[in-house]
């Protein structure tokens, strides 16, 4: 089954070919060319347990651009919200639709859907990972700085779901990833062990100066993800804010990336996110094209 659950499930070649496809679809759309309609006559169910702007709209528009029909399903409006099992929901939806996309709290929910669905399943963010975001971010890096191997990226802040997918991407594409954050918010130990045993060039540090030095891409994310308690996070992450002073030590042509939504004045200052090095809206746009490539791959074997 062609599930898109996490980047580490794929070979570098498979991921690169999806990125190339996304870049081609973007170019075709910009030049007004028509492209293939791999979702013609097909329906994609999109289940949301959490809010979303980019994922929801970019998937919905992407499905339409590929000739398909999107169904937006809030988990609370399904019997799932009243306690119907995830297994039965996956089996039933598989009888109606051709692809299931899900954004959920527990990663286990995603895995259970994938195990019981008889159609491809796409991870649209869990507490553990956010691979669709990374496909858009990788497309953005290619657009600004060319081939991914050998590039350098610095991540500032929480070792959260987006950081997890960054680590998987760094291993698969052979770029250096420097993660600067408080030690007690480090990414999951099992993933770091996997990254190291697979030759990943991953640096964990609490020294922002080490992370930023001449780096090509600077990335951060909210300090309080959906489902997290704020606790002492504001104070804990304050030293890792991305601001103009920090950006000065990055490479001259460095870009700033953020999956959005952003909290200006917290993880990033307005000066940086609204400044000339910011690539955040290219990233957001690339969600559309990267996900069209993912959708096309999901249905290409069926
Ligand atoms: N970056 C991202 O996934 O945004 P949404 O939560 O708006 O979908
Ligand atoms: N880490 C953030 C990403 C939002 C797109 C969250 O999970 O809330």
Structure keywords:
302 residues, alpha/beta, five-stranded parallel beta sheet, four-stranded parallel beta sheet, binds phosphoric acid mono(formamide)ester, binds norvaline
Backbone shape = globular
- State the assembly state of the protein chains: single chain
Question: Could you tell me the strand content as a percent range?
Answer: 5-15%
The main pleated sheet reads as:
5 strands, parallel
What structural class do you assign from the helix and strand content?
Answer: alpha/beta
Radius of gyration: 19 Å
Task: Describe the secondary-structure layout.
Blueprint: H1 12-30, E1 43-48, H2 54-65, E2 69-74, H3 86-96, E3 99-103, H4 107-116, E4 121-123, H5 131-145, E5 152-156, H6 161-173, E6 176-180, H7 189-197, E7 202-205, H8 208-212, E8 217-220, H9 233-237, H10 244-247, E9 255-258, H11 270-273, H12 280-300
Parallel strand pairs: 1-2, 1-3, 3-4, 5-6, 5-8, 6-7, 8-9
Helix pairs in contact: 1-5, 1-12, 2-12, 3-4, 5-6, 5-12
The structure holds phosphoric acid mono(formamide)ester and norvaline.
